Amino acid sequence: MRGFDPGSRTFVRAHGTTVFDASGRGFFDATSSIWTILHGHARPEIIAALAEQAATLDHSTLLGATHPAAEELADRLCGLAAMDYAFFSSDGASAVEVAAKMALRYWAVNGQPQRTRFVRLDASYHGDTAAAMSFSDIAVFKDHYASLTFETFAYDASRELLERDDIAAVIVEPLIQAAAGMRYVPHSAYTALESMVPLLIVDEIATGFGRTGTMFAHEQLAVRPDLLCVGKGLSGGVVALSATLASQRIYDAFLADYHEMRQLFHGHSFAGNPIACAAALASLDIFATDATLAAAQRLSLAISRNAELLRTHRGVREIRVVGTMCGIEIRSQLIDASNAQSAGWRIADALYERGHFTRPIGDVIQLVPPLVTRDDEIDRFFTDVLAVLEDVCI
Ligand SMILES: Cc1ncc(COP(=O)(O)O)c(C=O)c1O
Q1: Of ligand 1's atoms, which has the minimum distance to the CA of residue 91?
Q2: Nearest CA to ligand 1 atom 8
Q3: Residue environment code for 175-197, b if the CB has 16+ CB neighbours within 10 A, otherwise e
């Protein structure tokens, strides 16, 4: 992309809520490095767990084998999420692909092979691989790849769609759609899914692990997932690890004697890598030692308090906050974009000058900070957003 200056965003070190460039200048990591880092960068407990695991069992496949870190993590995740089994992958998109395959096979072996279609929310985003793209509804991510994707239906909360006999599953992001610019999904949109749905896939890749104030966002709804995708913050956000958590009935669909070939033929080389699992176990321990969920709720209050003050600014169209996830939608027509790529980038660039690293999603400036962020860091971010808006508003 012409106009991108790699010199201005090359980070060589990170600590806590700060990423540092080669000159030693620190920047507030306002997006948690795209919604991954939970407990701050370079947490000693996670580093120690990574190092110890690397020295003990660095890698060992989960294809036809297992290891203690994956076993323990599967148990703990299932306990936390009230699910029954965990299938590990690396990136979030892979966890979504796996959920799709599990849903298809579930119906095939249960005598309803015609259930092959999927339903998704408007403005959805589930990743950049083929099925995940098909489940997504954001033009820039999928429009050029029609030959790689398949048709999915937009969920309109109507029973008619959910009652069709060719629907395999409905996939949803709970409460908030991060990639759509921190878009709210009203609670009422999920009501029909409490009972009607053939299978429900809940994608908690962005929202999981405390970001919305509860461990998983769907705890704030009355839905019960059959499949639950997690990633990003699963390892504390420091190494690639994702999981598709499944309920007993999904697992049972794949359980048969060898010659029946019902097992799930899907596996990534680094799925459930022991080092990644060890990081995830250390991250889950930190939830207890740091009281991370209480910290997330306090952080949410600090964000909401600041958001209230900015809400009436003429350069702001809307501010959306769910827990610790915040999107500030600007009125781009009122912004002097000067030499920047867009109004959003003009503001992100100006914030960078002031020591904050964020990136716009269209006209939305995002703030999704690490859960250890202090109130004064939030205050400073908003003070600087206000100062920047004052500067660039025409
Ligand atoms: C809700 C959601 N699902 C899936 C993904 C894809 O995850 P990954 O980028 O790890 O493949 C993302 C990434 O932003 C996401 O926000």
Answers
A1: 10
A2: 92
A3: bbbbbbbbbebeeebbebbeeeb
Cα 212 off chain centre by: 11
If you measure from the C-alpha of residue 26 to the centroid of ligand 1, how many angstroms do you get, rounded to a whole number?
A: 27
Give distance in angstroms: CA of 72 to centre of ligand 1.
24
Residue 263, token pair as written in the block: 């097992």
Q: Which of 91, 170, 181 lies closest to 140, judged by CA?
A: 181
Q: What does residue 55 show for φ and ψ, rounded to 5 degrees?
A: -80, -20
Cα 89 to ligand 1 centroid, rounded to whole Å: 13
- Could you tell me the domains of the chain? 6-30+292-392 (3.90.1150.10), 44-289 (3.40.640.10)
* pTM of the entire predicted model: 0.97
The percent of residues above 70 in pLDDT, for the chain, comes to: 100
Convert the pLDDT of each residue in 331-367 to its tens digit: 999 998 888 889 999 999 999 999 999 999 999 999 9
Q: Which atom of ligand 1 is nearest to the CA of 178?
A: 16
- In sequence order, the 6+-apart residues with CB closer than 8 A to the CB of 352 are 8, 9, 27
From CA 329, how far away is CA 370, in angstroms rounded? 21
Tokens for 316, please give them: 């702001």
- The whole-angstrom separation of Cα 177 and Cα 191 is 17
Q: Whose CA is nearest to atom 4 of ligand 1?
A: 126
Ligand 1 centre distance from Cα of residue 391 (Å): 34
Tens digits of residue pLDDT in 244-265: 999 999 999 999 999 999 999 9
Count of Cβ atoms closer than 10 Å to residue 336 Cβ = 11
Q: Strand, coil or helix: what is 79?
A: helix
The candidate with the shortest Cα–Cα distance to 283, out of 89, 55, 36, is: 36
